[in-house]
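Hi there,

I know you've been waiting on this one. I reran it after we fixed the sequence typo, so this is the corrected version. Both the input and the resulting structure follow.
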Amino acid sequence: MRYRVASPSEYLAITGSGIDDIKLAKKALVWPFQRCRRFDVSPVNYTFEVQAMSSEKLPFILPAVFTIGPRVDDENALLLYAKLVSPHDKHSNHVNELVQGIIEGETRVLAASMTMEEIFKGTKEFKKEVFDKVQLELNLFGLLIYNANVKQLVDVRGHEYFSYLGQKTQMEAANQAKIDTAEAKKKGDIGAKLREAQTAQNAAEIDAETKIISTQRQGEGKKGEIKVKTELKIFENQREGDVLESDTALATKKAECDKEAQLAKVEAKNTVDIRDAELKTKLERKNAETQTEKLRANLLSKATVDYEIKVQEANWDLYKNQRVADADLYGKRQVAEAQKASAEANAFVRQQVADSELYAKKKEAEGIIAIAEAEGLYLNTLMKQLGGNYGAVRDYMMIKNNMFQEIAKINAQAIHGLQPKISLWSQGNNEKELNGGAMKDIAGVYSMLPPLLKTVHEQTGMLPPAWLGSIQDANDA
């Protein structure tokens, strides 16, 4: 009997007599026919570089560090770990390959269902889903992920997706900076022009108000002058009336004295004269009042009309100058905006055309490279399958690409239109006589000469030499 005690980061796994399955404890008495083994429950860091492929068939490398250890707060999970994993060293290849296989399998399956853009932009969600799916598999072994750190995605050599994406982002940032600079310059130019226009408008308004005030002051001065002249004229007329009244009174007194002197003689005549003088006085007074009012009305009307004319002229000059200034400002603003819009449109069109041409050339080059690589791989595989026989590979490629049909077609087109003439010659019984003789072969050669010479003559127009013979038909011709 022995008394065993485990360290703080260890557990005791006891099996044997009196224990049905396995017993876990921090300290225990180990009886005879029982076995006790210590196992460490501290977590371990596992570093991997998982090579996966997205749904667009784009490969990438996912560096990851997982901190994994047994689940010490769950007795069933701890029993699973003691049974399945603890017999092996935590740093052994067996445990490492077990954990790596689970992580790589789940990561590849998850990456295959997502696009590269979704993986790149949703790193947090991608990490969470990998964490959850891997944890489900590790539960079968009583393991728990204490921490998972997914590093930045890395390009696979020959598939530089992220480097191209970074270049694209840099170009977009540079272009946006250029656009912002141009926009700021545009706002500055427009603001300066607006300030100049507002300054000119304010100056024109001040000048117009000054002219209006000056015209009003001149009208008020003329009105005062006319009023003084009118009152003076009225006073003079009143004085003339008073003088006339005094003269009339004096004449009346004189008439009374004469009346007293001449009494009856001139009484009637004086009465008539007095009455006539009174009537004349009233008439002249009325005429004087009428002329005064008429003169006052004429002068007042003339001053009012002059004032209104001056005001209307000043208003018209102000309105005309303001309209001219507004029209000039609007025309200059429209011309500047049209020139700027045209320049920006031309620059944007040239930039878009250059970008599209560059992108098309790049994609065309990538397509040619991909086709060349595929054809090279295909030819290498075909060469291996045919045992390195170059002639067999060549014949196979010619058959596959219909080269023999093309050659036959070209040959047929070459002789198309020819009209060959075929002549049959027969030697009759002479051939039978020579069948068994020694001259058989020589006779056969000579029997071929006439048709051969005739055919050459018909096709080319050439005659055989005189020592070889002549053709009867040709000589007759």
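Quick highlight: The CA atoms of residues 255 and 271 lie 9 Å apart.

Best,
R. S.
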